[in-house]
## 1
Amino acid sequence: MSDCQDRHVLVEIARLFLRLGLTAFGGPAAHIGLMEREAVSRRGWLTRPQFLDLVGACNLLPGPGSTQVAMALGYRRAGWIGLVIAGLCFILPSTLSTLALAWAYLRYGGLPQAQGLLYGAKPVMLAVIVQAVWNLSRMAFRRWPLALAGLACFAAALAGAPPIAVLLVSGCVALLAVWLGSRPRTELRLGAFPLAIGSGPAASGAAIGGAAAGTVGLLPILLVFLKMGVVVFGSGYVLLAFFKADLVDRLHWITSPQLLDAITAGQVTPGPVFATATFLGYLIRGWAGAAVATAAIFLPSFLMAGLVGALTGRIRKSKLAAGFLDGVNAAAVALMASVALSLGRATLVDGWTWALGLVSVALLVRYKVNATWLLLTGAGLGVLLRGLGY
């Protein structure tokens, strides 16, 4: 391929993923649907089975799934430089818009208008999490052993078990069940791949001590968010469990209401929900904290998506890896349910928030209303209700 053709391919990658980063609302499933239409149907970068291989392999990895699919597509198209361009172009619009919201939140968060916006948006955000739990549970609990595992993980989460431990124990038990049931000849090394990448940073994260948010160093922020980027399996909403366990309960860097405000900001902006880290980093340590948190949480994905591009077929065919993922997914949905319950207590504070939350759940689950428009509507109603004195 000539230099001119190389530049054309790289510009094509940049333009596509920058546009998706600016317009891709609706969460990971919507992002992947848009990528399939653009990369497979319109551009013919790869076949539909090859695209499904990438999606399946990325689901075996921790981190933001749709972002990793974008990176893997960039890798398939133009190698490592294509991966970096696709990742940056897909991530940057979300992180910059989330950073702007974080700045406005700290500057104007005490004004009635801002309070009204969050007052109306939070119940809808809670409904979005409930919808995600509902949709994912049908796949995660498709067999009764997985449903029992989910109940056990839900109970463990309510009892205060660390999210990392819940995920890894559930995944290991499911992997062991597959191994004992089928006695495969497949090498354990490949099947255990997610364990290796999921357990390493846990110890380093546990060593970080708590501190007041205004005095938090950049290194602790780096280590905490790097751990998030390496160990969070499943939907981006599973981040809630990790953020709550580390940033709220253990380190006391932020409060539960601030956590829900951050996840709401991540939802109303396009692109990956993991950009919530930008908002939280800004709350903890200003501009420098936002930059460090964002870089740390996304950095592992750049490395792992490249591995997906090279090892897609082998990972997807591994029965042990699939068994581990089943256990992890069951635990992930259980963690999301436990956090939704916890945040619901802080969010549903009166009749209006209860009504908005219940109506939002019905519209999302039954009628598949676009979550972004619903969030904006909820925010507008919140401003109106606050203005009327409710």
## 2
Amino acid sequence: MGAHSVLKIRHERGAALMGVLNVTPDSFYDGGRYLGETAAAHRVAELVEQGADIIDIGGESTRPGADAIPPAEQVARIEPAVRCARQAGVLVSIDTTSAEVAERMLDLGAQIINDVSCLSDPLLARTVARYSATLILMHSRGAMKDMKGFSQYPDDGYDDVVQGVLGEWRESRNRALASGLAREDVWLDPGIGFAKNARQSWELLRRLPELAGEGVPVVVGPSRKSFIGSLDGSKPEDRLGGTVAACLLAMQRGAHVLRVHDVASVRQALLVAKQLASNPSEVSRV
């Protein structure tokens, strides 16, 4: 899926929708729900029916403190889901930091690799480049196992969180370009909640136009995260309203792709926002 495809979808609906499929026992919200081929296949069908443009499939949890999963185990977890998604004709993204996992899934027809380590392993970029695929570089600092907790990060961890994220992401992007990837095939995810506290995550969302000004597709993943719970103490299962609101804000401020668990709800919100923006005269007569 190239940047031109994302721009087309963004023009039609406001943002492309990336549905989350975690084939893990321990992800923070949906861990354990989609283990096994039958459950994963059902989730793929559900996401397609809800209108997902991309399905992001991961076999390794990215919650704080999560252990790394060997590549062979990741492949065993996600391969059935990838095959189902390809049969359904939907674009497939693989959530992995492993070049070995990426190569196997790109062989099966995945088009996007979603790297939450901000290119800790340059071999991953070289692998993606060989397949002329897309690489999402999500800003983060350090391994998931070393993250202290949800939305826990020092207030003074950044002089300016937006400029800090951009600077570190650009360094990783430059390594990816040196590995053979084209500029339009390296996308930016600011990493909401990863090595950021709630205040820093809110600041990234408020100043999203600065990130969008980088001139590459921007992926934002606010779905049910703890920065929403910082407002009202809600648990992940009670953060749908906040997720939809954050997605609408992100879309309005320049996000190209929204990574979400609740595709149907976010899609409906985007359609309403699009209708209100494009037909103000119709709204005024209601």
## 3
Amino acid sequence: MKEQTKYKKAAFGAGCFWGVEETFRTTKGVISTAVGYMGGHTENPTYENVCSGETGHAETVEVTYDPSIISYNELINVFWNVHDPTTLNRQGPDIGEQYRSIIFYYDEEQEKAAMDSKEKLNKSGAYGREIVTEIVPASEFKFYMAEDYHQQYLKKRGQKSCRF
């Protein structure tokens, strides 16, 4: 009998969640993805609430992954490569706290991996500027699932990215 694989969760905010979700969804070892809101103070926020800038939430992708196929460090590398972690509360044309760069860690191992990775990238000068990504415990925030029409938004439209 095959031993059951224990899946793990990760959560990342890297700007508009549509493209970020599509990138993670199509990454080998990712079992499922969901887009939502995390890191704020309003219960059960809606997209309109979050876009108002008054809830404190970030557009977030929750990733369920199989650590026997993909490591958390590899997921962090996907995160760094899918956005610009040096822009505060902004990704491309999208401006606001909801578009901030943020990693929500679920355990000490994830925290250490995220901190070490950020420090290594900052020291390397890879981005030419300081990385402003927040690294915070997921336990302090609830993940609120976004509305259905946001889930797998690009896949439903046959698109690979938000760029037209």
## 4
Amino acid sequence: MNVPRIVVVGSVNTDMVVKGERLPGPGETVTGGQFVLAAGGKGANQAVAAARLGADVTLVAKVGRDVFGDQAIENFHREGIRTDCILRDPDNATGVALILVDDSGENLISVASGANHALTPAEIEQAAERIRTADVLMLQLEIPMDAVCRAAQIAAEAGVPVMLDPAPAAPLPEGLLRNVTYLTPNESEAERLTAIAVTDEVTARRAAERLLAAGARYVIVTLGSKGALLAGKDNTVLIPTEPVNAVDTTAAGDAFNGGLAWARGSGMALEAAVRQACLVGALSATRLGAQPSLPTKDELMRFAEPLSPHC
């Protein structure tokens, strides 16, 4: 397989995770949890996911001039991620996410975006040449929408495939999806984008059809333990995932996206790439934390080896 050149334009956060027996209700305190401090942010998570699988990754992002920013950049160096397109913001802190996780792996997340929301289209322009020479551009929605749109436009004009993870879910500007090759919403994000409640394969197909009509070339709706629905203009297929004992699903979507970008950038056929992404996401859900849960290529191969070929 080729070593894919992947550019990720997105967020960098420090995750403060509390794992407890159950999630608290409004006004309730639940004690006895386990605390973990970990690197996170959807952009950073996806960059690390792709890098651990063997991709040549550049991260375009903005962090504060603070200890969390220092730690993030040091971590990216350890992961082999190119950091020359990461900017330091003197006015805003590095992003922070507060994450609660229960015993079943479900989570609640609150984010203070900080420097992530100060990333501008003009700063994206500074990384334009890196984007134009990528095999895949990865985007999410934890940075300003105008920065997302400019990055997608640069890539699309250069013929670079654009992968957009529409998370956290938000209305998309008209025209953005025409620059998107792979749109990868989960069930709730697909519902937010289409007003179709996604509860099973049938409703996932309906939502995917609406997103295809809006301009995306392919829509891949991730369905948790049910797998992923891959939809294109001419064909739609449900790709099952491997059942696992979920510990923390916080970064499972980021792992899926990183795995998909790595596989497609390496030249893997799309359906096979989605199958690989299923495995990456499933494996990450068996571990606590965001970036700590992301598997290496060797770990993925060991996990995949005894499994049946369906995913």
